[in-house]
Amino acid sequence: MAAAAAAAASTPAAPQTVEVPAGPPAPQEKDVMERQIEMGGMGHEERTFTYNRIEADYSRQRGKNVGNYDAEGWVGGDRDKFWYKSEGEKNGPRTEQLEFQALYSRNVFTYFDVQGGVRYDVKPDSRGYAVFGIQGLSPYRLETQVHAFVGFKGDVSIRYKQSFDLLMTNRLIVAPTLETDFYLNDAPRRRVKSGFSVIETGVQTRYEFSRKFAPYVAIVYESKLGGTARLARLDGENAGGWALRTGIRAWF
Questions:
Q1: N or C: which end of the chain has fewer CB within 10 A?
Q2: How far apart are CA 206 and CA 245, in angstroms?
């Protein structure tokens, strides 16, 4: 027993581990961590996605065949995107409107992006614009767009769009829509006066056979307003009215 006690006493005690609080990361490590958080998570890079949507419809108005299309899409991630937008209208044999936009989009709020870029109109006459605006999802799931167009020929306007989807069933969807243009100055060559120049509002009802394909019918009121409407009547044109449109909506 004495020998065992002596041996135990002669054995050195095991060193004790002392936990030291971790200090702040080195500057290089901190930069990497912040970059990873900005890109969507630790160790994950921002992924690139694409989206394209097109709507095309037909109506019969005042004895003429009228066709409309509205297309948009983007490529990018959650924070940065490149957007394209295009819309046009053909009234009988004449193309009355044809425009294209190319925009850089940056997410700045939870559901909103700021956008900037250019717009080019082929019809009713050739002209370009600088574009600035916001686009996103307002409270109550209202799809909202507000863009300012600064024309290279001097005209300045603001376009406001809003729509939202009401799900009647999982496939049947009713979508009220509103679009209007407000001109800050006259555009004589386009026969447009300052103020609200045009409005397009209505209700679209679509049936989604799949999420990516849906035929629809829409009751739409489209008309020129104010001084622009008066100029149209002086030119012998109809300022606008109601129309029943049938079309197809697809996205991919």
A1: N
A2: 12
* Contact assessment for residue 141 and residue 164, using Cβ atoms and an 8 Å cutoff: yes
Burial class (CB in 10 A: 0-12, 13-18, 19+), 241: exposed
Q: How far apart are CA 22 and CA 41, in angstroms?
A: 22
Q: Would the pLDDT of 40 be above 80?
A: no
Q: What is the H or E stretch that residue 103 is in? A: strand 94-107
Cα angle 103, 105, 110; round to 5:
155
The span from the CA of 182 to the CA of 188, in Å, is 15
| Contact criterion met (CB below 8 Å) for 220 and 242 | yes
Q: Whole-prediction pTM value?
A: 0.79
- Report the b/e string of 106-131 with b at 16+ CB within 10 A: ebeeeeebbbebebebeebeebebeb
Cα 152 from Cα 129, distance rounded (Å):
6
Region 176-204 average pLDDT: 96
**pLDDT confidence tier of residue 45, bands split at 50, 70 and 90:** low
d(CA 163, CA 173): 12
pLDDT single digits (tens) 224-234: 999 999 999 99
Three-state DSSP class for residue 32: helix
Q: What pLDDT, on a 0 to 100 scale, did the predictor assign at position 47?
A: 85
Q: Are 164 and 176 in contact (CB under 8 A)?
A: yes
Q: Which residue, among 172, 169, 182, 186, has the nearest Cα to 215 in the 3D structure?
A: 172
